[in-house]
Amino acid sequence: MTTKYIFRYALAASLAVSAASCKKSLDLQPISDATVNNSYNTASQAEAALAGAYNTFVSSDYYIWDNTYTSDVRSDNHYAGGDNPDFFQYDNLTLTATNSKVYGDWSNLYNGILKANTVIQRVPLITDPSLAADRKAQIVGEAKFLRAYHYFQLVKNWGGVPLVTVPVTTTDPADINTPRASVADVYNQIIADLTDAAGVLPDTYGDASVNKARATKGAANALLAKVYAQKPDRDYNKVLTYADAVISSPAGYALVSNYSDLFDDNHYNNSESILEAQFNGTTIGNWSPSLLLPPSITSTTWRKFITPSKNLANAFDSEGDVVRKNQTMLFEAAPWVDEYWSATVNGVVPFPYKQRNLVNGNSTSRQYMLRLGDIILLKAEALNALGRTGEAATEVNKIRTRAHLGNTPAATQSAMALAIEKERRLELAQEGQRWDDLVRYGRAETVMNALNETNLITGQKVNYNMTVQKELLPIPQTELNRNPALTQNPGY
Amino acid sequence: MQKRITLFCAFLLASVFAYGQNITVKGTVRDQKGETLPGVSVRVKDSDAGVATDANGAFSINTASNSTLIFSYIGFATKEQPVAGQTVLNVVLDESNKALSEVIVVGYGTQRKGDITGAVSVIGKKDLDQRPNTQIGNLIEGKTAGVQVVSPSGSPSATLSIKIRGTNSINAGSNPLYVIDGVPAQDTRSLNPADIETISVLKDASSAAIYGAQGANGVVLITTKRGTTAKPKVELSAYYGFASVRKKLDVLNADQYHQLATDLGYSTDWTKYTANNDWQDEIFRSGSSQNYQLAISGKNEGTSYYISGGYAKQLGVIESSEMARANFKVNLDQKVNNWLTVGTNVAYTRYNDVSITDDTNVNGGGVLLGALTTPPNIGIFNADGTYTANPFQQWENPLASLYGSTRPYKNQRLLGNAYGEIKFTPDLKFRSSLGIDYINAVSDYFLDPYLTSYGRQNNGIARNETNLTNYWISDNTLTYTKKLGKHNFNILGGFVAQKYRYENTYIQTTGFSGNTIPTTNAGSVIGSAYNNKSEKFNNSIIGRVNYDYAGKYLFTANFRADASSVFGPNTRWGYFPSFSAGWRLSEESFLKDVTVINDLKLRAGYGIVGNDQISTTNYYSYLGGVGSGANYIIGGNIQPGNYPSSIENRNLKWEETKQTNIGIDLTILNNRLTFSADAYIKDTKDLLQTYPVPRSTGFDFALKNIGTLRNKGLEFLVSSKNIVQKDFQWSTDFNISFNRNNVTALYGQQYFLNTIAGRSEASLVTEGKPLGVFYGYVYEGVDPQTGNALYLAKSGEKSSNPTADDRTIIGNPNPDFIYGLTNTFSYKDFSFTVFLQGSQGNDIFNATRIETEGMTGPQNQSTAVLRRWTTPGQNTDIPKASVNNTDNSRISTRFVENGSYLRVKTATLSYNLPKTIAAKLRLASIRFYATGENLFTFTKYSGFDPEVNAFTSGSSANTNGGFGIDYGTYPQTRNLIFGLNASF
């Protein structure tokens, strides 16, 4: 062999070696994504995981506007609009398991729970000394509040649902096909989480823009009051206890003096607010007003997606309630046909008006996640249920006075119960409360089947065919397909 | 040609020590056309001494001055040539059987067709010239068995997907691996077909296994042209074509729409709406295509070159849709000395297109469904210059979707490689190659702030998205060739490393003061802005042994070990072996004398190949990802938030396909009739699935290996020279493929895919059924009493209110068979080619009809609704109108149609100017042609065109799980093309 050959072999060998020495190259780490191993180690990462959990309030369809569908459109307060047949199923009480909104909402809520579960599991393990022990406990408390808030939505809407309290780490069907828990078990979990949260959360963090953005002790107590009222074996003593805890909280919750201040977009994080989702209208914007507000505000002429009902308008009118009606609906000529308000184009139609800010298709308007007006009426409900009708009237009148209405004429316990139901309807319309109220009072069937709504296009009276079974939503068909351990709700 | 790097280079025997007064004889061996022949055995008669020609057909041998040399080469007649004292001997070999001697490009090398033991189809010059077109997928369609081209639509910007022997995967990619001059590539849309010399399709595992984890869907090897002749050759080709839609659909006119709307309960001031447009006339136009290509090539001393430039432009049949492409290509090879050759292939492409919105309804801005469902009454523009909309819903007319926005897409790509080849000994060769694929794609979008209502709401929207792809591959291989008596060995071994890097930026702004600046900087509000990067690395070891005994018994074994960064550390390495064998019966003594048989070969092969095509967003999913951007405002400040984005799966690995193939090749009747048949079974396991998990986990999908899938099939190819006379030739090529696909195990999982607005999903992937069957209700006609649609319930009764459980499988988009038939007639200088192509037994789900016959809202409808139910007792096939209610237009057998078709895909008449006249024009040759594409289509399908696959562009999940759906899809067009090819 000559040197020429040796040179050639050497060249070839060096090329081969350089190509083969790539073992390290195989261990690539994500560039634009973090991993579970490097995301939960420091104090700021703990706060980021928590912020991610709160993000569900501002990013999920459920909290942006679907809760208005599940509560106000499904009940007698509003009609569906727009062009999606799935949405009309809420209005007509013809919901099916394949409804895309039902599936989307179920998914939104469980995604929120995953984020909360991740905080609850990971944050206690963080050893970063800059994460103080009390802040660590608060973070877990805030996450537990969020988990309880989401499970409360689930149990109200679907009944007993799978109870997942730890983030999954495998895809083994045995680990992820969680069967439904009982309604009682879900409520027990909610109450346990809220009790823990109330124990560690402060009354305030400082500025109102923080106090209303985060879960506080007041928020945990307010939600406990709502939970004890809504659960099947309700406990009005507990409702009273927790409502009072909110009302007398050192956080200083107080009704705003003008009802319009609640919705005029100049009084965010006001004294009546206990918790509200925070938007800046650009990077974190609320898009639902662009789908709901009239053409004069949105400058779009397509049909909007929710329309206040004639029945709701009548309810305001029968009470002479101008203040709250004007904050709830805005009448305007609509360049389309509305089957309940106008059989011809350009008839006058009401539009939802509680969220009314809109700039470049985006909004800073928000929904109250919890507000004092609700808790005061809940206190009235508890007092009346406990036979203290006179004290209940006092609470109801606080709300009525602000709405420029006279004292409630209701004197008996049963009349007071109905008066409170109606007061809640007028005070909290469009705020995702009505359906729960009807179900809680056992009046969903009576009220819905008594409705007299005529479709002006067909000329037919709408038959809602409300049944007890329709109080719950169907378990989404897609979820049933994915999880064979689930069972459908009766009637679907 | 890769002939020069062929692996069949040496037949050198050990004893090169010769006695006596020898001389060195040098020369070149060529075929009749003057092309050099590499690997020709050159032996000294009555001696063991011998050499083989090198890559350039040259040989050099020491021999006695009075000896005789024997030149032999498979497929050529053996030739004896006395040396007679000459030191230079140039030899021309006559072909004995052209087909068998054809050198075919296979993975990491070439092979003579006669030696192939796997299932390899070749699409050569003959097929490529016949059909002028802008995309390689079009060239392959119908030309060979076992290859199905799925065109999502007739849009100029549509990317054709190719399925080789069925679909192997549910969620991972189903496209084959494209290898362009040795560089693997995904996107073939920017490839210029005019630069292609041949296409080899590696169909079975034994031929594709050398590509290991990337080979499961088959491999398409594309070889571009190189210089071959000493005299520089200049080639010019140009064509111009016209395109039109095959048919229009009948929709209601203005009066009929007025009546329907009134019946549905819609009233308005009709005097404002006096127009009567058929919107199909507004969106359709006569399309055009033009294509120009200039190439110069040649070969001299050790250099061969090919330089080309091309330009193509297509205007689609739907307004505003277009495509333009400019290409530049250089292929160079240089023999530096007797042991080193270097070369490069480089192609630069600039590709632009404008696409339109299709595959969605009018609510989503779908242009086709917009044209069908927009009322004829409303005119195009309002008095203020904005686009009109449906009087009862703000659905704007389809021109708003076409011209309310600008949507340019620009793609620039540099694809190429450089290689060096070192010959250590005549037997042992080392080749090193470095390839790159660099793609920079920019999508811009600007929605005018005035013309459309969405634009007015947002005061204009601008988007800018940039996708940057950077890929490199390094191949290092060593080849050893040896002949020992009648035993021939060829051994290949090497390393391959590949890295892929993907970067993406996106910004959207709104709030424009006007429409003068269409870029994002002029928007006053940044809606969203993001940036993403990801990487993938693959490392592989490859090996192959070819062995044959006297060209009679042929064996091939491949092995590839692959490691990929996207899979878990425990499962990172995959091993892909394959074995195949061939038996040339025609070389056996008992058949050698049967003169009617020219060639008879049996082939059998088995191998394992993999599929690692997961989307860039899943590159790290084995790790358990945490996403960012889930922010929240606390105290008025935005707090950065994160969220768990994927479930960890440390055991993630590739899909694995085991394929068995048997085949037979037969050539008879003086090489006039060639017949090939193949049968295969492919079993894919560990399907890489974005597996839907219960949403109660908080996740939607988890990437997981689960499930099995089987494809089995038969393929037949017949090629016949029916008439071979001096002035008249007639040849026929026919191919037919049968594939049966079955999802054999999914472990209880089902995939519901392809949502039709308001009606849930139309396609289903479920155990025991082929991929993508249609799923819905069985339609039982119209209840004469109520006018409601009736469906078959599980109980066997007809119901107007069935439950989800009553749904069943209602159709199958997979064809029973697909086929292609080409007849070529030549008379003197004229030639005429007719290419028929068809698909039989496939269903189409015509979701377009759901939108045009559903009568659920104020959409215009097709004339079928004139038959709708209106009075009790009426017997009809169209249910009554039901506003805001989809019960009468559920996904059902009512919309499943027979999608079988046979079409005259192309018919080409061409004329070669006689050589004598061409010579006077100083041309070597000139050919004029006229081609008609999709001239006639025979089908029962009622939609625009039966070659339709909504939802198949974009995410690969849908490509595999659901095809054969028509949902306002851009139709295929009928084209008339005139062109010329000249060389000088």
Automatic annotation (TrEMBL), chain A:
Record domain SusD-like N-terminal: where: 40-228
Signal sequence bounds: 1-19
Family to which the UniProt record says this protein belongs: Belongs to the SusD family.
Naturally occurring in which organism (per UniProt): Mucilaginibacter aquariorum
Subcellular location, record wording: Cell outer membrane
Keyword Signal belongs to the record: yes
Protein name: RagB/SusD family nutrient uptake outer membrane protein
InterPro entries referenced in this protein's UniProt entry, alphabetically: SusD-like_N, SusD_RagB_dom, TPR-like_helical_dom_sf
Chief subcellular location: membrane
RagB/SusD domain boundaries: 358-492
Record-linked Pfam families: SusD-like_3, SusD_RagB
Keywords annotated in UniProt: Cell outer membrane, Membrane, Signal
UniProtKB/TrEMBL annotation, chain B:
Membrane-topology annotation of the record: Multi-pass membrane protein
Gene3D superfamilies in the cross-refs: Carboxypeptidase-like, regulatory domain, TonB-dependent receptor, beta-barrel domain, TonB-dependent receptor, plug domain
TonB-dependent receptor plug domain segment(s): 114-219
N-terminal signal peptide: 1-20
Keyword Plastid: no
Domain (TonB-dependent receptor-like beta-barrel) ranges: 359-935
Presence of the UniProt keyword Zinc in the record: no
Keywords: Cell outer membrane, Membrane, Receptor, Signal, TonB box, Transmembrane, Transmembrane beta strand, Transport
Localization per Swiss-Prot or TrEMBL: Cell outer membrane
Source species, domain of life: Bacteria
Family: Belongs to the TonB-dependent receptor family.
Name recorded for this polypeptide: TonB-dependent receptor
Organism: Mucilaginibacter aquariorum
